[in-house]
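Continuing from the previous page...

OK, I double-checked the sequence for ATP-binding cassette domain-containing protein against my notes and this is the correct one:
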Amino acid sequence: MSKPLVLEKVVKQFGDKTAVNEISLQVEEGEIYGLLGANGAGKTTTMRMVLGLIYPDGGRILYNGKPYGSELQHLMGYLPEERGLYPKVKVSDQIIYLARLRGMSASEADKSLKYWLERFEVPEYYDKKIEELSKGNQQKMGFIAAVVHKPKIVIMDEAFSGLDPVNVELLKATVKELRDSGTSILFSTHRMEHVEELCRNITILHRSRTVLQGSLREIKKQYPREEVLLHTASEVSGLEGIAGVTGVERKERGYLIRISDVGAAKAILRTAMDQSEVEHFEIKEPTLNQIFIKEVGESHE
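Thanks. Re-ran it with the corrected sequence; updated C-alpha cells here:
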C-alpha cells in the first residue's frame, strides 16, 4: 500500500538561495507528523510544495504513490498561519462555497459544516459574518474551512497560535479525531509541547537541511537524562554532595536536581528517603525543547 504523503530528496531554490535542501519524509495514514524548525528553516516552503502552490526544483513529492495533479485538491486541506476568510461574507456562504470548489455537493457541504459547528458548540455562527466573530472563533472557522470537504491529507501551519487554552484543547481533541479517522496530517509549529503530545514522528529543519528525524520516542532515547525531579514532604539536605550531582534547584514542592550521570539517581532517592517522605521521584527524559536547542543551537521563538 502506498503512503498518503512521501517527500523524496526535495529541493527548492530561490535564485542562489537554497530554501529546502534534500528533504525526505513520509506521513502514514492516520498520523500527525511534526515538521519543526526556527523561522527561515524551510518549513513554510516545504508546506507550499506539498500543497502544489510551488514546485520542487529537485526530488519528488508523491500522494498515495502518484505525483501532484489538480484532482488532488479534493484530497487536501490547508490551515495556513495567516487566516484567509473574507470578513464580510457569511460563514455558511463562504465555507460551503469552498467545499464545493473541492468537489462536494452543496447539500453534503451544508451537512458537514453543520456537523463541525455543532462539534465546536457554535451552531449559531452559520449565519454570522466572519468579522462579527472573535479572533479565536475566526480561527475555528478557518479550521472548519480546511476540513469541511473531508480531506485525506491536511497541512496545518501553526494551527493553535493565538488561541486561548480552552480552544487549544478543543482543537487538539479535534485534530486527534481526524487522525483516528485515518487522515494524514503534516503539522508545523513552534510549540514543542504540542508536538510531544500529538506527533509520533518528527523532522527538525535547520537552515534548509534536516538535522534530526525519526520517532520521537527513539530520538529521546539518544539523549542523556540530566534531570531528576524530587518532591518530598520536608526538606532534604546533602543532595549537593552526592557524586554525579551538578546542581540542585529548590522548587515549589521539592527539588530539580541536575546530574551528569544517571547512576546518581539511586543515591538521590536513598538520601531523600532517609530524611523525609518521598511524594514524587522522576528521572526526566529531555524535553523536545531541550533537544531542539541542542541541535539547532538557538531558541525557537
